[in-house]
Amino acid sequence: MLIGYARVSKSDGSQSLDLQIDALIKAGVQADKIYQDMCGGSEIHRPGLDACSKGFRKGDLLVVYKLDRLGRSIRTLIEFVEWLNEKGVGLKVLAGQGAQIDTSTPNGRFVFNLFAALAEYERELISERTRSGLAAARARGRKGGRPKAMTPNKLAIAQSAMKDRNTSVQQLCKELGISRQTLYRHLNADGSLK
């Protein structure tokens, strides 16, 4: 069964689904089998796509106008198509950069796997560059990561204040700009060091 999915990024009425819906119907998708969303591609929860996904059966073919209607990042798309493959559902793209993709055919699977391999190669290059950059920074004496919230000065102030039983922990944390968890990670309730 052909199942269609259409999405526009804005729900304020400035964008229309008409072009996508017309293309899906022309490709053979029945109008009542077209799911729609009006939200950004990076949104995690897309009610239309979620509803569409729940109804998949083995042998179904998901049809989209353009590949970017499913998601913005290659990684997200690859994970989604792998999930479709596990369900036995194919993907067909009608227009744009991914128009050669029809994972229900050998050629379409080849094209998609080629895209996936290039994306994996790109991720590995980024990871390698990041590791090299961190090693170079460490060699120069720089440490990465977030600065410590609890400085020695704040620790001394907190220790002194915690010794007084009338101290409001909430107020102390607010004044020091730290969380309650950070305070108790370093000190016991009586102000002694952990």
Question: How is this structure best described in words?
Answer:
It is built from 7 helices and 4 strands. By secondary structure, it is α/β, with parallel strands linked by helices. The longest helix has 34 residues, at 106-139. The N and C termini lie far apart (63 Å). The mean pLDDT is 85.
Q: What's the total count of β strands?
A: 4
Strand order of the largest sheet: 2-1-3-4
Overall mean pLDDT stands at 85
Order of helices and strands: EHEHEHEHHHH
Query: What sort of overall outline do the alpha carbons produce when their principal axes are compared?
Result: elongated
- Counting DSSP H or I runs of 4 or more residues, the number of helices is 7
Portion of residues within helices: 40-55%
Q: Structural class, judged by helices and strands?
A: alpha/beta
Q: For the terminal residues, how far apart are their CA atoms? A: 63 Å
Which stretches of 5+ consecutive residues score pLDDT under 50?
none
Largest sheet: 4 strands, parallel
How much strand content do the residues show?
5-15%
**Integer-rounded radius of gyration:** 26 Å
Summarize this structure as a short list of keywords or feature phrases:
194 residues; alpha/beta
